[in-house]
Amino acid sequence: MSEQISVLVVDDEPIIRAGLGAILDSQADLTVAGTAGDGEEAVEACARLRPDVLLLDIRMPRRNGLWALAELGRRGLLGPGRSQALMLTTFDLDEYVDEALAAGASGFLLKNSSYEELTGAVRAAAAGHRALSPAVTARIIEGHLRARQRPSDQELARLRDLTERERDVLRLVGDGLSNAEIADRLVVSLHTVKTHVSRMLTKTGCQSRAQAAVLARNTLP
């Protein structure tokens, strides 16, 4: 990632794009790489600009944010070392939030979030951390878990190649711990944790820590 965090702002409302862009450009470490008005434009712009973070509206006409998220994943444009997708919505109980996280979104943010929440979430997503609005974090994760009765065979298969230490790391990611907190808990270096997290994401096929957290909370005791 470059010294500045580049952001692609995707929303069908020009005034929202302008407002978000103004907030981001006011920060010394953030820059708006470009904007898009729907899912198709978002995918094309991401492939061309390779931003660190996409601010991606869920609800848009024509191709919405979920379509864009799936297409970005299919093209290999999301994940560690690539772009991170931070989903935007006006609804804290949006029915698509669970699907977005499962598809590899790095986080979920309300459009009425404060400046500090918005910029903090972008920085967290760029660093590969889960970036969920404080107002909805618990409801998203717990709601997902309540809806699931037992892990599927496909989910369990994703854990098959993990070492015991990588399972420990996955479990702690599921508990919401940062890399530094995991290092303290396991009494290892931060570099070692980053290596374990990277291998765990690769082996499980997770494209973000948020997706790994959902997998952990649904499969590990």
From TrEMBL:
Domain of life: Bacteria
UniProt domain Response regulatory: residue ranges: 6-126
DNA-binding is among the record's keywords: yes
PTM-bearing positions, type 4-aspartylphosphate: D57
One Pfam family in the UniProt entry: GerE
Keywords assigned by UniProt, alphabetized: DNA-binding, Phosphoprotein, Transcription, Transcription regulation
PROSITE patterns, A to Z: HTH_LUXR_1 (PS00622), HTH_LUXR_2 (PS50043), RESPONSE_REGULATORY (PS50110)
InterPro entries from the UniProt entry: CheY-like_superfamily, NreC/VraR/RcsB-like_REC, Sig_transdc_resp-reg_C-effctor, Sig_transdc_resp-reg_receiver, Tscrpt_reg_LuxR_C, WalR-like
Protein name: Response regulator transcription factor
Organism placement in taxonomy: Bacteria, Bacillati, Actinomycetota, Actinomycetes, Kitasatosporales
Domain annotation HTH luxR-type: ranges: 155-220
